[in-house]
Specification:
Elements (H helix, E strand, L loop, with lengths): L3 H34 L1 E5 L4 H10 L4 E4 L17 H16 L3 E10 L6 E2 L12 H11 L9 E12 L2 E13 L15 E3 L11 H7 L1 H14 L3
Parallel strand pairs: 1-2, 1-3
Antiparallel strand pairs: 3-4, 3-5, 5-6, 6-7
Length: 232
């Protein structure tokens, strides 16, 4: 039979163990409750880069579902002449074919020296859809020899939300310049050659948190989440 001090030590150990288990269970319960409290919202994309950004931007507020999450693997046409039009097409497609309220986005890089191109054609500017390297190569080729002061550009994101039978639009924009070569390996798309005016480096050199604070998509999503908070 253990002496009183040994017994008390073991008892204290068991009580502490039970407390730890209780705290673990409480934390798990709180996590589940928080997730249950978060509303689901469908983002009309299967682009993993966009999904990752949006989930970070809306973390703790909404549980962002992808098209795959709702069983949509359709090749939704993007045939509009503007990014706003393309965002509208995708949102309406999900609502009409799957019945979900949702939001969709489209983004364009507008370069002043190229007359606003690539604009609505940003994703396939190099001739192949979503080939970022070819897109960047084409931009750098077309801007070869153009001085920095004439390489002004902007990213614009348009978001279309369909909610409760109503359609709402939000826009985010960031001004900057096109660099003469790639910088950094972060982000996606044209990020390695775009330097926003608010920063001393390209989007491609930033962490996700740094980029989200000033990015076109971050600004558009901020307007979206602010609007959604008024409808909760």
């Amino acid at each position: 039979m253990p002496c009183p001090l040994e017994y008390l030590g073991k008892l204290e150990y068991l009580e502490n163990l039970e407390n730890l288990e209780y705290l673990d269970n409480l934390a798990s319960l709180e996590y589940l409750e928080n997730n249950e409290l978060m509303k689901d919202i469908v983002f009309a994309t299967n682009n993993e880069h966009k999904l990752s950004e949006l989930r970070q931007l809306m973390a703790g507020k909404y549980n962002v579902l992808s098209l795959a999450d709702i069983g949509c693997h359709d090749d939704i046409p993007e045939t509009a002449a503007t990014i706003e039009g393309n965002a509208m097409i995708k949102a309406q497609w999900v609502k009409e074919h799957y019945g979900y309220d949702c939001f969709s986005d489209d983004t364009g890089l507008e370069i002043d020296a190229l007359g606003g191109e690539p604009g609505v054609h940003s994703a396939r500017y190099g001739g192949v859809a979503h080939d970022s390297e070819r897109n960047i190569d084409k931009v750098l080729h077309l801007l070869h020899g153009v001085p920095l002061e004439r390489r002004t550009a902007r990213f614009r994101t348009a978001i279309v939300l369909i909610l409760d039978g109503e359609t709402h639009q939000f826009e985010g924009k960031v001004e900057g310049h096109i660099l003469t070569e790639r910088h950094g390996a972060g982000g996606f798309g044209y990020d390695p050659i775009f330097k926003p005016v608010e920063a001393e480096c390209a989007f491609g050199e930033m962490t996700a948190e740094q980029k989200n604070r000033i990015s076109h998509r971050g600004r558009a999503v901020a307007k979206l989440t602010e609007f959604l908070s008024t409808r909760s």
